[in-house]
Automatic annotation (TrEMBL), chain A:
Belongs to the SPCS3 family. It is found in: Endoplasmic reticulum membrane. It holds the Pfam family SPC22. One of its GO terms (biological process) is protein targeting to ER. InterPro entries: SPC3. It is a single-pass type II membrane protein. It comes from Porphyra umbilicalis (Purple laver). Coiled coil: none annotated. The chain crosses the membrane at residues 12-33. One of its GO terms (cellular component) is signal peptidase complex. PANTHER family: MICROSOMAL SIGNAL PEPTIDASE 23 KD SUBUNIT SPC22/23 (PTHR12804), SIGNAL PEPTIDASE COMPLEX SUBUNIT 3 (PTHR12804:SF0). This is Signal peptidase complex subunit 3. Its main location: endoplasmic reticulum.
From TrEMBL, chain B:
Belongs to the SPCS1 family. Pfam families: SPC12. This is Signal peptidase complex subunit 1. One of its GO terms (cellular component) is signal peptidase complex. PANTHER family: MICROSOMAL SIGNAL PEPTIDASE 12 KDA SUBUNIT (PTHR13202), SIGNAL PEPTIDASE COMPLEX SUBUNIT 1 (PTHR13202:SF0). Residues 79-89 have a biased composition (Low complexity). The chain crosses the membrane at residues 12-30, 36-56.
Length: 172, 99
C-alpha cells in the first residue's frame, strides 16, 4: 500500500472479490424464500385420432390441449427465461410402468409473455407410445417448467393437470 | 502515504466496497436487473479508486521521523551488550513516537 501501483493492485483484488460476492448474493437470494406457485390448469380439449402406425409399429395419438398457466410468479431478478412443457404420463404394461412424453413446450423469455393461454392448441409433438399400449391408457398431464437463471443453478417445478383416458379402440 | 494512512486507506476502500455492494444488490433486486446491480457496483469501485489510489494529503498526516546518524551511532555504542536491546530501543523510541 506504499505506492499508487501497489494500492491499485490490492484494491483491484478487493473489487474482484466484490464482483463475486454480488454474483453469489444474486444467485442465492431467490432460493431463500419459497416462491408463490403459479396458477396452472391443463386439460385435453379434444382428440384428433388414436391410430396404429404400421411403419413404426407403435400407437400414435394427436390431441389438442387447453392450457391456462400464469407463470409470472416464476420471474425474478435472476430469471433469464422459463422453459415450460407439458408431459403426458401413463402406465401401460408391466414392462414399461412409467412413460412420460413431452407433447408441448414453449420458451418464455419475459414476464409479459409468461401468462400462457392456449385454447384448443394442437400439440407440437404427437403422443407416441413405445409399442401398442395407448388404447384405454389413463394419461396424467403435467405442466412442468425449468427455470434458467442468469447466475447459478437450474430450478425445476411442475403442477399436475386434469387426467384423461384414451379411447379403448383406435379411432382410425 | 504514511503507515497509518495506508491502514486508513484500506479500511476506507473496504467500507466503500461494502456500501456499494449493498446498494448494488438492493438496486438490482428492486429494478430486477443484474446489469444495473453491476453498474452500481462499478460506480462504487470507481469512487473507491479515486479516494484510495492517489497519494492524498489526508493519508499523510502521521509522517515517520527517522533516526539521525549521530543517534544511530550512540545507539550502537550503547548496545554493545546485545543487538536486540538496541534495535528495540530505537524502534520503541522513534517509530512509536511518530504513531
Amino acid at each position: 500500500m506504499h505506492s499508487a501501483g501497489t494500492r491499485a493492485s490490492i484494491l483491484s483484488s478487493y473489487a474482484i472479490g466484490g464482483v463475486f460476492l454480488l454474483a453469489i448474493a444474486i444467485a442465492v437470494a431467490p432460493t431463500l424464500y419459497a416462491p408463490r406457485l403459479p396458477d396452472v390448469s391443463v386439460r385435453v380439449n379434444s382428440l384428433a385420432f388414436l391410430r396404429y402406425l404400421p411403419a413404426e409399429e407403435c400407437d400414435q395419438a394427436y390431441i389438442a390441449l387447453d392450457i391456462n398457466a400464469d407463470l409470472r410468479p416464476l420471474f425474478h431478478t435472476n430469471t433469464k427465461h422459463v422453459y415450460a412443457y407439458v408431459t403426458a404420463a401413463y402406465a401401460n404394461s408391466t414392462t414399461h410402468v412409467r412413460n412420460e412424453v413431452v407433447v408441448w413446450d414453449r420458451m418464455i423469455s419475459s414476464r409479459e409473455a409468461a401468462d400462457v393461454k392456449v385454447a384448443k392448441g394442437w400439440v407440437k409433438y404427437s403422443l407416441k407410445d413405445w409399442g401398442v399400449g395407448l388404447r384405454g391408457a389413463p394419461v396424467r398431464l403435467w405442466l412442468r417448467w425449468s427455470l434458467m437463471p442468469r447466475i447459478g443453478g437450474l430450478a425445476y417445478g411442475g403442477i399436475e393437470g386434469e387426467p384423461y383416458t384414451m379411447p379403448v379402440e383406435y379411432t382410425q | 502515504m504514511d503507515l497509518i494512512g495506508q491502514e486508513r486507506c484500506e479500511h476506507v476502500f473496504q467500507g466503500v466496497l461494502l456500501l456499494s455492494l449493498a446498494g448494488a444488490f438492493g438496486a438490482g433486486w428492486i429494478r430486477e436487473s443484474i446489469s444495473l446491480a453491476y453498474m452500481v457496483l462499478g460506480a462504487g469501485v470507481a469512487v473507491g479508486f479515486v479516494i484510495c489510489t492517489p497519494n492524498w494529503r489526508v493519508f499523510n498526516r502521521n509522517p515517520l521521523t527517522f533516526a539521525t546518524s549521530s543517534e544511530l551511532a550512540a545507539d550502537m555504542a550503547a548496545g554493545s551488550t546485545g543487538k536486540g536491546a538496541a534495535s528495540g530501543k530505537a524502534a520503541g523510541g522513534k517509530a512509536g513516537a511518530s504513531r
